[in-house]
Amino acid sequence: MKNESFLQKQLSKQGMRQVFTILFGLIVLLVAFSIINPLFLSSRNAANLSRQIAPIIMIGIAQSFVLMTGNIDLSIGSIVGMSTMMSATLMTKGMNPWTASLITMGASLLVGLINGYLVAGFRLPPFIATLGTMTICRGIAQIVNGNYNTGAINTIPETAEAVDTFRNIFYYGRIGGIYNTVYIALVMFLIFNFVLLKTKTGRHIYALGSNAEAARLSGVSIIKTTTVAYVVSAFCSCIVGIIQCCSAGMGAMDAGNSYEMYGVAASVMGGVSTLGGTGRLIGTLVGACVWATLQNGLQFANAPVALRNIIIGIIVIVAVLLDIIIRNKKPRLISAENQEEKSSPGDDNK
Question: pTM of the predicted model, to two decimals?
Fold first, then answer.
């Protein structure tokens, strides 16, 4: 009875039905791919899969924060690329990796601030505002090293040891057989999940996404709350960019391509509404696991790249459709106004 009571309590919370639905889908995928190729669940692939999932979790958190405010961030992938190139270029010039990362983080957070003020302060449509910063950040990624990818980041004798240590911390190192990248993703999840569910900032994010005008009349600062969401997005994207740099051991100008799509996919599959005000980061975490599992499993199934893209695109659409069916009991279109009336920003914070 206690287990049933706990399950019923969880299912009664807003957004949790979608979480359990996508979790069931993840289990089905794991079983299916293990049947297709027994090597899929080998210890070696499990370790690599967990390391592939980690950046998608971070990107999912980035996009989820923005989606929950009723906006979108198209600059995520380009911030990843800019961060990769900036940090790598500075390291190849002999800068300490931690100093290079701090400078890169400062530049990324500045982009987040600009996105927030463009969307909330100047009321630019988020699609247009972040499309512009997406292009700018990709341009910065291209010019920081003269329109070339960087060389290896550990070739400077004075900083080679520090760079190798840095790479171990962010990518290659393990604790208890689990890669450090996974721990970084989980720590970020715990921090930002706490922010959403237990702080005033989180309540304001849900309120803004549910009904912006009502939130404003209730004393929520639209500019501050929107900017916080975009800064969180930029922060997570920068961390992923630094991890990409540590993974490759160099800077690549095309790093982060399509990552904004990965973030949207992980979020919506996990139950985050594109209309704002609804969703949980635990769902985003499961959605990221589904996304990475699909990519990895289809490789083990020897599926062509084109077929993988088609299958994943279909699953994203089905995930959103299931969310509509679950919430509305039947597959019908609903307006933004109706969604706002159905959403309650306080439900996720009780």
Answer: 0.89
Domains and CATH numbers, the chain: 17-349 (1.10.3470)
pLDDT digits (tens, 9 = 90+) for 239-266: 999 999 999 999 999 999 989 989 988 9
Residue with tokens 């999840």: 189
Angle at 272 between CA 260 and CA 289, to 5 degrees: 65
Q: pLDDT digits over 186-219, tens only?
A: 999 999 999 999 999 999 999 999 999 999 999 9
